[in-house]
Write the structure tokens for this entry.
Amino acid sequence: MISVRIPSDHPRAESLHVREKLVQAYSDGIVATSGLIAHGRGEAFDYLLNERTSRPARNAAEAAAAILLTAKSPVISVNGNTAALAAKDMVRLGAITDSKIEINLFYRSRERELAIRNLLLKAGAHEVLGVGANASARIPELSSERRRVDPKGILSADVVLVPLEDGDRTEALVRMGKKVIAIDLNPLSRTAQKANVTIVDNLVRCAPLLIEVAEGLKKKVCLECEKLARDFDNGRNLAESIRIMKNTLSTLAKTGLANRRLEQ
Ligand code: PTJ
């Protein structure tokens, strides 16, 4: 692998560091080839958010944390990109919200399962579900590899957090009566549209935010969590995220000049 030194004064240094993380994780067998393509798609949508966490994303993160904290059996589903970008944060979030961690891959292979499990264990996870024969249950009406789930985890969960997902599973989980929380920079994706709560934000920013919000809510009474979960309207919130993207484009269409942070 060719590794490059990213100059710290490069205007896109932060974004390039994230890319390098994914490229390294790709050569370590953690990220799927398509994971690199998925990241590029995410970056394009992030431009439209000015690479900032928006108010609707923050509101969705609050509802998500509240739902995780009040769930009976929550599970955080981890794929290659999530492991590469936020392994430590997912483990920490799991500890705060008492959520189990389960590996669930679209491009499933024994090698990837083990590489991701090792990364999660190194990040502090005590138990990693969904590996090998433990993913013995099946999500009904789903034919992709994502159908393989752990009876101790996603199969029996009431709430599932799915960062960076590819669509069909979210619908299937909702059909099974589970609450699905998605993290997806594309508000138009099937996952974003079908989830109960969608955080339209970059996982890299959103993971620490979820931790902060969950820590704050944990200290408060349960009633506040219940209200946050009950009052959240995903359709309305998605519309706000789409409006922010539209406004970014409208402003750009007037002047043609992008925010300096986004210049290459
Ligand atoms: O590790 P595997 O085998 O489970 O495969 C994972 C990928 C991501 C390859 C698989 O789930 C896939 O093909 O996903 P899609 O269909 O490309 O969808 C990924 C979604 O995540 C897209 O809507 C992207 O815009 C979005 N996305 C990409 N990077 C980020 C992101 N959302 C939040 N934060 C990101 N960093």
